[in-house]
Amino acid sequence: MSNYPTLALTPGEPAGIGPDLVVQIAQKQHNARLIAVADPDMLEQRAERLNLPLTLRECRHEQANPVLPAGELYISPIKLDAPCTPGVLNSANAEYVLRTLSAAAQGCLDGCYDAMVTAPVHKGIINDAGISFSGHTEFLAHYTDTKQVVMMLAAKDLRVALVTTHLPLAKVAATITPELLTRVLRILHQDMVNKFDIRHPRILVCGLNPHAGEGGHLGREEIDIIEPVIEKLKLEGMQLTGPLPADTLFTPKYLDQADAVLAMYHDQGLPVLKYTGFGNAVNITLGLPIIRTSVDHGTALDLAGTRTADTGSLLVAIDNATAMAQKSKQKQPFQ
User: Fold this and answer.
1) CA distance linking residue 76 with residue 166, whole number of Å
2) What pTM was computed for the model?
3) Cα–Cα nearest to 120, from 193, 246, 14, 248
4) How far are the Cα atoms of 189, 240, 271 from residue 247, in angstroms, in the given order?
5) CB-count burial class (<10 Å; 0-12, 13-18, 19+) for 104
6) pLDDT tens digits, the chain, 335 residues: what are they?
């Protein structure tokens, strides 16, 4: 049983499909101990609405906890601040959402959990509550006191990491500095080795401008920033190719020879990845001292409580977290 990792599972926005997905995936057995960090009453109410069986079990970290059969789920209880209606946002529960994330992250840092898997949150309602929040990635970086993290989505044989994440397009060019690009590439390379067991990862680097700047005629970021960083890191042994035009990089000619792509901004790389595998992709935060994976979609308020939400992405997130946690356990000295 010790080979089974323990995963903290946060359902995200209580009015969205996150609780539905948690209840639905509890209907099958997994190769991990899944612990929902959530309000137990909310999950039981959602299970009743979905007409699905759910038995919640208290998880005791001081003792061995077996993998549960289908229909059962471990719970680490955190109470809602206000009643929840599926599909109806309530800013009163914004703090609750953040408490679940903090508890899961702290549990990972303390060694109670081997990884955390997150269902979607609603950024807008958290900000409406007066809390500055730009996403899971940034929140977890701040919580774990991590200076630099990298957001990466993976689907099928395609992995796309980002230099900048949830940032207005008007601010992207000024944000991409040699220092930032160097840190991001080092984190991407290191975690491809450590978390994916790819000893010599091959990374394609997008240009920022159309046609990768067209020799400086469409922008000089490639010449002044991206190319010098690539050449410097290649001298350290990294296998980097670029900067390449983003409109031709995502073709078999290049992708068949690569393990990951680094895009300069959110909507440069992710539309291609989501077209390739939306609903079956996983969001992985690189650079953290913990393992964190997430779904590739939003809260889908219109589907909440209808039993029509697709569990595909959450299952992929659980499978990826399980695999990375098992690899991490194998690398740890026997105790």
Assistant:
1) 30
2) 0.89
3) 14
4) 23, 18, 12
5) buried
6) 357 899 999 999 999 999 999 999 999 999 999 999 999 999 999 999 999 999 999 887 655 678 899 999 999 999 999 999 999 999 999 999 999 999 999 999 999 999 999 999 999 999 999 999 999 989 999 999 999 999 999 998 899 999 999 899 999 999 999 999 999 999 999 999 998 889 999 999 999 999 999 999 999 999 999 999 999 999 999 999 999 999 999 999 999 999 999 999 999 999 999 898 887 899 999 999 999 999 989 999 999 999 999 999 999 999 999 999 998 877 654 43
